[in-house]
Design brief:
Length: about 250
């Protein structure tokens, strides 16, 4: 990772390092990369990722290959405070518009990869309205079962290189988006990759994000669990199960 370690998260030996503390620091790092025409991979770590890492060596390796790692989720922020190394909350969905403003200001074209064709078209329209002057050069929604290590992925990297895009928002879900971004550092070294989960679906209206009041009170997880209980309840159960160990680890970093 390019920046200094701020906080280590996860069970040893599967821990990952968070190295960006604030939005201002993130935006400056991205600007610097654009000026130098150097690519990067940006990950937003949350409890779901930390629960998956010990069981997925490829995911762990990909995470450690990321240049910029920020805190996504209130529990990660709370853990950072427990460690007396506070981090600012930076969900991937909230980073899309600010990063696009930077791209418009610096004349850096963007690309959107993931989700569905309809969601990409809707997100593209929304971004052009909210960010005047933004250039969107490439849209691609891989089919179900997409493999980030496949020839199909190689074709996407080649298209990104040819498009001139300087930033690619990746909405494939974990761990695929992080695997795709990490490999992209080699296959498309001048492109920045930002993993954003359901961010494009929120922008296009294909998914409804939790109301702002629920997000203010750290209840977005409850909203998502109610929307899709069969999928989300087991996921959150695994997340809550690892919290005690993470809290002990954070305390030791004080």
């Amino acid at each position: 990772m390019s920046a200094g370690v701020v906080l280590k998260l996860g069970s040893i030996p599967h821990e990952v390092e968070v190295n960006i503390t604030t939005r201002d620091a993130l935006f400056q790092a991205v600007r610097d990369r654009f000026v130098a025409q150097r690519g990067f991979a940006l990950a937003t770590v949350n409890l779901d990722h930390l629960a998956k890492l010990p069981a997925d060596c490829a995911f762990l390796k990909a995470y450690r290959a990321h240049d910029l790692v920020v805190a996504d989720g209130r529990p990660v922020v709370w853990l950072s405070r427990l460690a007396r190394q506070p981090l600012e909350l930076m969900p991937g969905s909230d980073m899309i518009i600010p990063l696009c403003h930077i791209c418009a200001e610096m004349a850096v074209p963007i690309a959107l990869v993931g989700s569905s064709d309809a969601a990409l078209e809707g997100a593209s329209r929304a971004l052009k309205i909210q960010v005047p002057g933004l250039q969107i050069r490439y849209l691609h929604a891989p089919p179900y079962g997409f493999d980030p290590n496949s020839a199909q992925a190689d074709a996407i990297y080649n298209a990104l290189n040819a498009s001139g895009a300087g930033l690619c928002f990746v909405a494939l879900g974990a761990p695929k988006q992080e695997l795709f971004a990490a490999r992209g550092r080699e296959m498309a070294p001048s492109v920045g990759f930002a993993s954003i989960g359901a961010g494009l679906d929120f922008l296009s209206g294909h998914q409804v994000r939790a109301p702002k009041i629920m997000r203010m009170f750290a209840l977005e997880w409850l909203w998502r669990a109610l929307q899709s209980p069969a999928r989300m309840v087991p996921r959150y159960a695994k997340c809550f199960a690892i919290l005690p160990e993470l809290a002990v680890q954070a305390w030791r970093q004080r």
